[in-house]
From TrEMBL:
PANTHER family the UniProt entry points to: CHLORINASE MJ1651
Protein name, entry field: S-adenosyl-l-methionine hydroxide adenosyltransferase N-terminal domain-containing protein
S-adenosyl-l-methionine hydroxide adenosyltransferase N-terminal domain segment(s): 8-109
InterPro entries: SAM_HAT_N (IPR046469), SAM_OH_AdoTrfase (IPR002747), SAM_OH_AdoTrfase_N_sf (IPR023228)
Length: 114
């Protein structure tokens, strides 16, 4: 029986002009070297929560069940804003508590938020 390679997707407003995306991927692969990281977009307009929410909503269901979707777009970076972990029947979402997961919460049945 073959083990399924875990998938993590990224949606950020980091852009590609510096090393932030690379550092984030390095930290993830240091924790789990077998993970497959897929960039959905790192070019979300700076702090544009609505754009990030739309990109996530329009893309997440194309990924295999068990995919972890990570969104890092937040005007409150560095604040005391908490992160959310949203679990649905098929996916896990990690994002700031800023409304970026609103479309997913509205669409999915019985999501669990922590």
């Amino acid at each position: 029986m073959s083990k399924i390679q875990p998938i993590i997707t990224l949606i950020t407003d980091f852009g590609l002009q510096d090393g932030y995306v690379g550092v984030m991927k390095g930290v993830i692969t240091k924790i789990n070297p077998s993970v497959k990281i897929i960039d959905i977009s790192n070019n979300i307009k700076s702090q544009d929560i609505f754009q990030a929410a739309y990109v996530l909503y329009s893309s997440y269901a194309y990924f295999p069940k068990g995919t972890i979707h990570v969104v890092v777009v937040d005007p409150g970076v560095g604040s005391k804003r908490k992160a959310l972990c949203l679990k649905t029947k098929d996916y896990l979402f990690l994002a700031p508590d800023n409304g970026v997961l609103s479309f997913i919460v509205a669409k999915e049945e019985s999501p669990s938020i922590r």
